[in-house]
Amino acid sequence: MADILVTGASGFIGGQIAGELSTAGHRVLGVGRADQPMFPGAWTYQALPGGQALANQGGLDAVVRGFQPEYLLHCAGTGRVDWTIARPAEDFASGPGLTFALVDALRRLAPRCVTIYISSAAVHGAPQAELIGADTPLDPISPYGFHKLICETILREFKTVYGLDSIVLRVLSCYGAGLRKQILWDICQKARTGRVELFGTGQESRDFIHVRDLARLAGLLVGQGQRSGVFPVGSGRGVSMAELARMLLAALGLGQVPVVFKGVGRQGDPSRWLCDVVPLAGVGFRTSVGLEEGVAEYAQWFARLGQGVDPDCPSPS
Question: Which of 63, 88, 201, 204 has CA 20 to 30 A from 223's CA?
Fold first, then answer.
């Protein structure tokens, strides 16, 4: 079993990964900006509030020196392309700025630690070929993608110069109950008004991976003792935005709600993504949550929100 530090543990992906690793028997310390994690569990959480507090060298050094992680699951950062376009400086600070501070602390205080970085297929921009593999050209089209690529470059720098090992997971589209942003959240919110209007034509396609599967992948890599690699992460199944909207509205019991597409895409969004799952198969990984199942779970979670229940908080015992 390993000692694992998880950044962004108060958030959607980081919290799920911390829980998965803890369940597998690892000793997990999660750090984040919120007072409490979104998904509390049998792992230790330490709040580091105040925006860039985690990048404060003194505080970061204390965490790394005291815990001595064998793996760093780096999940901190923003997850909205439109937000990064509006606030590129803030995204740079919470992306490349924080990543550099983290791996520099590892270099000095825990040089055998392996970083597993949650990157994004946004580093590829809008590729000509639909299938995204580890060798797909890197050509980002948004601050989000550029900053993810810079973070990957920082990891390569510290491997080349200092010998720090790292694994990069380029996630195509991660979703699941508890995610309060991006396309599923947007559709649910607009469905309440009786009309769903979305960017694009409806024929744009994405490859979704459920957050539980992403967490399982992280656990698998740690369990195998992996120390390097670049993996595109998806299910290998593409779905159009029109089909996704119909699927979610049906799960909500709102199949009669009209869906209208503006005909114009949103800045920074590619038209199609599909994951080449061969590299994942090479390490023995297959997804376990089908899209229909995951969308149905999301609809149930959102319905509970509408009943005044916060499904992210555990029920009192």
Answer: 63
